[in-house]
């Protein structure tokens, strides 16, 4: 099953010569390894490493995230057979999708909202990264909310409250210090060449539907963000219509909000920014990043190890 022409035309128009690297990454994705993180609410990276050694499973550590592991695809079934996975001590998650919680710069005691939380990969990661925060996880679809609650219990994420609600309709009564909006998207960053499962339903109509929903979610997210707070917007897409266009539209409407550059550790006065740890992560490690028109946003290019992913950090002025 071939990639749709609208997708090829869109990335060629947006990324120019770099579009070829996106297509190469989509071709390499069929060999993508298994990736997961140790759930530090129940275990440790050291315990996980020992269990992998004992099971004879080859692995390597992720240099930018001490809790993350990469295992060759040939060992996938062996990973699924581990007690670790059934006991909630590890969580299978793509490397790219581990980045948004790391970029959110959370602190103990903060009120944190995950706007589109199911099935709970990033929610449980947030809970593990900052167990002293108060996390609200929103999910509108009942079966997905059930799955979310199951994963939260399995992972031991006790500081998370599930709210069964359409996040686009959150009451303005609510306000949050940090918001993760990992928006439903076309999944263009997760396409695998020749894999009908990933291409099924991928269309211009889906793109238009997702773009409308993403703008509505961003509008509501910035509305319930506290002054001085930060919202991290992400998608598993490489299409600007879902990414930079959505950010530009939101900031045009919300004049009290602005972009916080994810790739800069210092501001114009030389002071460390809230994104400094993430900016240093990007600078020090070999994560494949594409050039974006909106400076300070990040698009991870699809590759053998990474899914295509977009991240943008916004803040509401005090």
From TrEMBL:
GO terms for molecular function: RNA binding; RNA methyltransferase activity. It holds the Pfam family Methyltr_RsmB-F. Signal peptide: none annotated. The active site is at 236 (nucleophile). Keywords: Methyltransferase, RNA-binding, S-adenosyl-L-methionine, Transferase. Gene3D superfamilies: Vaccinia Virus protein VP39 (3.40.50.150). S-adenosyl-L-methionine binds at residues 116-122, 139, 166, 182. Residues 24-317 form the SAM-dependent MTase RsmB/NOP-type domain. It comes from the Bacteria. InterPro entries: MeTrfase_RsmB-F_NOP2_cat (IPR049560), MeTrfase_RsmB-F_NOP2_dom (IPR001678), RCMT (IPR023267), RsmB-like_ferredoxin (IPR054728), RsmB/NOL1/NOP2-like_CS (IPR018314), SAM-dependent_MTases_sf (IPR029063). One of its GO terms (biological process) is RNA methylation. Belongs to the class I-like SAM-binding methyltransferase superfamily. RsmB/NOP family. This is RsmB/NOP family class I SAM-dependent RNA methyltransferase.
């Amino acid at each position: 099953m071939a990639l749709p022409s609208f997708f090829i035309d869109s990335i060629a128009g947006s990324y120019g010569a770099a579009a070829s690297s996106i297509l190469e990454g989509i071709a390499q994705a069929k060999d993508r390894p298994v990736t997961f993180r140790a759930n530090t609410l129940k275990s440790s990276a050291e315990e996980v490493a020992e269990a992998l050694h004992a099971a004879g499973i080859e692995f390597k550590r992720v240099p930018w995230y001490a809790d993350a592991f990469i295992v060759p695809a040939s060992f996938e079934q062996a990973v699924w057979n581990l007690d670790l996975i059934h006991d909630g001590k590890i969580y299978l998650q793509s490397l790219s999708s581990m980045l948004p919680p790391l970029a959110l710069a959370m602190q103990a005691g903060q009120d944190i909202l995950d706007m589109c939380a199911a099935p709970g990969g990033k929610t449980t990661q947030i809970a593990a990264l900052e167990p002293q925060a108060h996390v609200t996880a929103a999910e509108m679809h009942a079966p997905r909310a059930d799955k979310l609650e199951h994963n939260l219990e399995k992972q031991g994420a006790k500081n998370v409250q599930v709210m069964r609600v359409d996040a686009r309709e959150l009451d303005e009564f609510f306000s949050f210090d940090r918001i993760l909006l990992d928006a439903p998207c076309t999944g263009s960053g997760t396409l695998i060449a020749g894999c009908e499962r990933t291409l099924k339903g991928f269309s211009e109509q889906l793109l238009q539907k997702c773009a409308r929903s993403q703008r509505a979610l961003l509008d509501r997210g910035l509305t319930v963000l506290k002054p001085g707070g930060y919202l991290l917007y992400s998608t598993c897409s490489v299409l600007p219509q879902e990414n930079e266009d959505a950010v530009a539209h939101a900031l045009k409407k919300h004049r009290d909000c602005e972009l916080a550059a994810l790739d800069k550790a210092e501001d114009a006065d030389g002071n460390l920014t809230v994104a400094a740890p993430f900016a240093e992560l990007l600078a020090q490690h070999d994560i494949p990043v594409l050039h974006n028109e909106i400076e300070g946003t990040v698009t991870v290019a699809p590759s053998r190890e990474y899914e295509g992913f977009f991240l943008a950090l916004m803040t509401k002025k005090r």
